[in-house]
Structures are given as C-alpha cells and as structure tokens.
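User: Could you check the structure of this?
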Amino acid sequence: MPDFKHFPLPDTAEGLTEAEILTWHVKPGDAVVVNQIIVEIETAKAAVELPCPWAGVVTELHVTPGQTVDVGTPIITIDVDPTGASPAVSSVAPVAADAPADDTPGTLVGYGPRAVTAKRRARKAPAGAPAVPASASAAFAQDAVQTAARPAPAPTPVPAAPAAAAQTDNGRGNGRGGYVPLAKPPVRKLAKELGVDLWALSGSGPSGVITREDVHQAVSGPVDDDRPVAAQLSVYEPVTRERRVQIRGVRKATAAAMVSSAFTAPHVTEFLTVDVTPMMELRSRLKESAAFRGAKVTPLAFAAKAVCLAARRTPDVNATWDEAAGEIVYKDYVHLGIAAATPRGLVVPKVRDADRMSLRELADALEALTATARDGRTTPADMMGGTFTITNVGVFGVDTGTPIINPGESAILALGAIRDMPWVVDGQIVVRKVCQLALSFDHRVVDGQQGSQFLADVGALLADPAVAITY
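Assistant: Sure, the predicted structure tokens are below.
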C-alpha cells in the first residue's frame, strides 16, 4: 500500500517565516533518494537548496515557482512505499491538532529537523497557482491519516505539452501540467525581471527556443521601421517603458531592516579625512614579501584590521542594545560584517572572530567571503550574528556616505575611495593618497566622545600602520 509523506517547508535559518519557491528539480513520477536536491528556495537572506528527507516517488508538487509560502506549509508529497511492500495499515492513531504533518525527517544536508509554526498571515498565490489554506499543515496531517486507510488514487493523466513548450529534463513544474516554455535559465530570469510571460511568446531560436531578443521584443513591442520616428514615438505606450518587480527576498528583508534601524536607533555620523599614503606604501612592500605571496591585500583588509584593534579601546562600538532586557550587551569578540553588492541585492556576510586574525588571515577571509557572495552562495547562517559592519563604498569611486547601522549592531564604518589629493606635509603642499571615513553609531550605546575616539583610532592606524604596535 502506498505510504504518502508530506514535506513541509523547513526553517533553514533562525526565525525564518516564509520563502519563495524558485525552481523544482523534480516532477511527479520521479524517483528520489534521501538528501537528493529537490527544490531551490529564496529566503529573506539567501537562496537555499533543499534535500529530500525520504526515498520514494514524487506524487505531487503543492506549490509553483514564484509562489511564497509560510514555513510549515507542505510543498511536496512523496510515496515512500511505491511498491506496496509495507504491511497494510489497520488502524491509525489520532493526530493532534498541533502535531507535525508527517514523521520527523532524518538529518539532512543543510538543515536539521525543526518544528515551526508559521505566524504570518495567509498570502495570495500567483495567478494559476493552486490555493494553499492557512491551516495547510493541519489539513495535510488529517489527509495523511485518511490516505493511509484508503487505496491509492488512480494516477492523474498528464496533458500533452503545448506546441511552444516541452517537458524539461529536470521537471521544473509551473502549475501548467508540469511543462515550461523552452528557454534557458538566464532567459527565464530576464523574463521574470521584465514581467514577460514566456507562455505568450513564440521562440525564434532553434527548435522554438525563446531567446533574450524574443523577451526584449515582447517588452518593446513591434516597431514599423517605415514609419517616421515622430509617428513611432507618438503611439508609444508609456507603460511599456516601465517594469514592475515584486518586492521579495533579499530586497524585502533589506528594506525592512533598514527602516527598522533608521527609525529605532538614533543615528549619529562623523567623518574623518585621512592621509593613507603610509598604508599604501606598506601594502606595496607586503606584495613583495614571502609571507603575503598569493594574498590579495586590499585597503579593506587594512580597514578590517584597524577596526578590530580600535574596538579594543572602544568596546561600545561592538556592543548591542537589548531593548527587551534593558541591557547593553558587550561582545568580547568581533564578528565583522562586510556589506557586499550581489545580483540578488545587498548582503552582509560575516568574518567570524576577525579580531583573532592576522592581516594575512583577514585578507584571505575577505577574498573568500567576497567570491562566495558574488556567486550567490552565501548561506543564511553566514549572515547572522554580526557585531560590527564595514561598507566599502570606495570600490564604486564614492568618497563617503552616511551608512545605516545593521540591525543588532551599534556602529558601521564606510570606507571611501582612495584618491591622489593635495595635502600639507611639513608646511609643504604635496600629492598624497587620501581617503575619507564615515562612522555611523547608535547614540543610545555610543556617546560622541566614544565614537570620535574610535574613528580617530581607525584613522591613525590607516595613516600610520606602525601605531598598531602601541595597541
């Protein structure tokens, strides 16, 4: 007799309440094994691949790509006994209203078992997506009891694929019979960003494959080149010159965090212009040394080291305001966050225990962190629990800014571009390497004197790295 297991969306990071289904890697009828990747989801922090908790055969996908669901909502059903080898179930114990929908999955790659009750309001599913009730977990639990006591349903026939679409080899369903239009992943991503329905397009590529040009043409519409330019512009619909992208994932989380921080913590920002010529000269010497061979020693690495050293003298910038407990929590470690721009939006991965690292170790850690973030492989765990953040706006040629403090922290440093500028040295105007720093801090935790001392210490360490031996 078939044994159906309903897999609920797990909490892949502390406090996760919902996630968007990005792509399915299986389809109904596929055989799966334990820890096989079956779906990719996007949380408020990162894209995560979920492994299968059981071996068996996929019987149903309950949500479609693009749909956002709450943690605990069943997303896939798997028949773990498709051959009917298990003895028939003669009786089933009652299921409590708050019990999980199925047996607890085994330990999986990427996450462990967790019982989570979603506390978010019900969301509207995209057009064409199957409705999932707010009490889906309880409903599926009851369904599991009923299913075990009745014969397996007859398989549902799969409709034929449309002419402009074909079944993909990975079976990524979309709520239209398990088929998707013929288009490569970058083209599907472009269509999603531009709001183009691939089902409405006829592919101009080989075998009807939809190309990037097809998507762009759908946005701009057909143009009659024989008409005068003025005539073409006069009938151009303004709406075709706009595009709307739903606020979700990293962008949604970033917006909420920044609004909360800006209107909760009283921000103060101070600025300091520093002659970093000695630091740049040291950097050149280190490139030639054996100890730093192969290392990418950037100004950011020097700034990271300076922050860790300066925080020893001003621990307030590395503390946390705990409103609920009425306490200020001082950290005896520095989990250094580095703001990184990625295709998915702004993320802030952490260098754990950065204060215990040498300059070479910091340089290597920052290079690895940047590469991981750029490739979109930063995990939710890597972006949690920071104590201080650096945002390197200098890589964009920007002098400085007024950064917003990362929630849960008390200060953030903006590192500006390093430029050749006139500078007074021993009464003479000479060209020097100059950089601007900006420190924003929570005035509930950090007073002006403390913030000024910390910023001055960072500046002194960048202006003359030899000062570090005095710390």
